[in-house]
Amino acid sequence: MAQETKDKNDRVRRGATLNEVILATAIFSTVIICVFGVFHLGNENWRLINLRHSLQNDGKRSIYVLRNDLLATHYTSVSVLNIGGQFNLGTKDELKVVPVYRDAVSLAFLVDRTNSDNFTAGGKQIWNRYVIYYATKPLDPDDGSRLTGGRLVREVILDTTVPVNESPYSNFAATEWLKDDPYANTGAVNKPGPKKVESLQILAQDVLHFSVTKNDDAKSVQATLKLFKKANLHAKGRNTSDETFQLDLKVQPENSSP
Question: Which of 1, 31, 178, 258 lies at a C-alpha separation of 20 to 30 Å from 244?
C-alpha cells in the first residue's frame, strides 16, 4: 500500500508527458482558431449590415428629396439629359463592363412657398429657380480604368439670363452644370455672376446608376437610382462581393396645368 502511494506521488511530481503537452496544445489551438473564426465571421457580417444600412439610407433620402421636387414642379418644365455608356466595374486586369446611366434632370422650382407674393391671384406658383439633379462619374485615381461610386448632386440655380417658367431650362448644359467636380460648375457657390448655384447638396455617395425618363402621355416622370459599393469582405468566397441597393420612382407633377 505504501509502495502504491509512493508511485502515485512520483507520477504527480513528474508532471505531464510530452505527448500529453502536445495533445493539450493541439486542443487549445483548435479552440482558439474556432473562437477567432466565429469572431471574424461576426465582424464581417456586422460590416456588411452597416454597409447595406448606409446604402439604404442614402438611397431613400435621395429619392425622397427628388420626389418632393418633382411633385411640386410643372411637368413641361422637366428636361432630361440621357448620359449613358459602358463602364468597367472591375479592375484594370479583371474587366467587368456593364451599361450604366448617369442622367441629369432639370425642373422649375419655387424657393419660398410660404410667401404669398410667389403666387398669382389664381393660386399658380411664380417659378423663380431651376433645380438640377445629376450623377457624377469619377474614375479610380490609381489606374483610371475603373468606375467608382459617383455622387448624386442637387443644385438650385439662379440664372438671371433667362426667365424661369413652365418651359425647360434653356441653359441646361453639361459643360456648365454637370461636371464631375460640382464645385467647378458655372457659378458654383460663392462665385459671382449672372448664373449662380445658390445651394449645392451631395445627396448620395456610391451612385452606380441614375436614369430619368418622361412619359408625355401620362405626364409622369420615372427615375431609377442604384447605389453600389464593394463590401471588401475577406471571408472565403466573399472577397469580391458587391452590395447594391436600387429604388424606382414614378411621379406625376401636381402643379401641371390641366
Answer: 178
